Amino acid sequence: MELYLDTADVAAVKRLARILPLQGVTTNPSIVAKGGVPLWDVLPALQEALGGEGKLFAQVIAPQAEEMVKEAQQLFARVPGLVVKVPTTAEGLAAMKQLKILGIPTLGTAVYGAAQGLLAALAGAEYVAPYVNRLDAQGGDGIAMVQDLQQLLTLHAPHSKVLAASFRTPHQALSCLLAGCEAITLPLDVAEQLLGTPAVNAAIATFDKDWQGAFGSLTL
Ligand code: E4P
Q1: Which residues surround ligand 1 with Cβ inside 6 Å?
Q2: What is the pTM of this model?
Q3: How far is the first Cα of the chain from the last one, in angstroms, to the nearest whole number?
Q4: What spacing in Å lies between the alpha carbon of 14 and ligand 1's midpoint?
Q5: What Pfam families is this protein classified in (predicted)?
Q6: Which candidate in 54, 64, 131, 162 could, as Cys together with 181 as Cys, close a disulfide (CB 3.0–4.6 Å)?
Q7: Of all atoms in ligand 1, which is nearest to the CA of residue 129?
Q8: Which one of 55, 85, 97, 161 is the catalytic residue?
Q9: Is 70 one of the annotated active-site residues of the chain?
Q10: What is the 191 CA–ligand 1 centroid distance (Å)?
Q11: What is the ipTM score, two decimals?
Q12: Contacts of 151 (CB under 8 A, 6+ apart)
């Protein structure tokens, strides 16, 4: 499976790349805007934070297919290996088809329905990103949508991977993996929740207390 962080926080990527088996970093325009560092500066910094290896994802801004393709070519030329995120609109689907012909890898993003995700895969997207929590927040069922999407891709577009996104809890991310998704991207707070389970810390504190009670400062 592939694990990504959904952030443009360079320091956090550097810290977590030491701990987690990261394949890379995903971004979107809101994430980059929140970080305050322009895309052309933050992408090389993220690449360096990953140790010079790892896949980066950046999203086009333009609403029309022709401009999306131009932006994607620009991104891909500046950052070799980058996967271009394209919103799964009608224009986005047209752009994904053209980018497939040009050999530029894409991710169909902003996916709120299984059929929409399937269309991105059929248009040639290498990855499809369903928005789990955003759909839940609208009263939908994000996990059920991911289950349907994963099944559809397995049956009809096996070249394309679900890269499940938009999480508020580790449980949402794990449910996607159990549904068979090959990739997930975690926001920093969810990655931190996975690493900092209070019950684990409490268990370790008890081990320390018991050891010190019996042996004082004796080490192994
Ligand atoms: C992924 O493609 C999206 O950019 C991102 O994961 C959306 O997540 P959010 O709902 O936490 O903003």
Answers
A1: 6, 26, 28, 109, 129, 131, 133-134, 165-166, 185, 187
A2: 0.94
A3: 36
A4: 20
A5: TAL_FSA
A6: 162
A7: 2
A8: 85
A9: no
A10: 14
A11: 0.95
A12: 180
pLDDT in tens, the chain (220 residues): 999 999 999 999 999 999 999 999 999 999 999 999 999 999 999 999 999 999 999 999 999 999 999 999 999 999 989 999 999 999 999 999 999 999 999 999 999 999 999 999 999 999 999 999 999 999 999 999 999 999 999 999 999 999 999 999 999 999 999 999 999 999 999 999 999 878 888 999 999 999 999 999 999 9
Domains and CATH numbers, the chain: 2-215 (3.20.20.70)
> Best of 131, 133, 172, 190 to mutate for ligand 1, by most ligand atoms within 8 A of CB?
131
In the chain, the amino acid numbered 174 is L
The first and second tokens of residue 198, run together, are: 């209070």
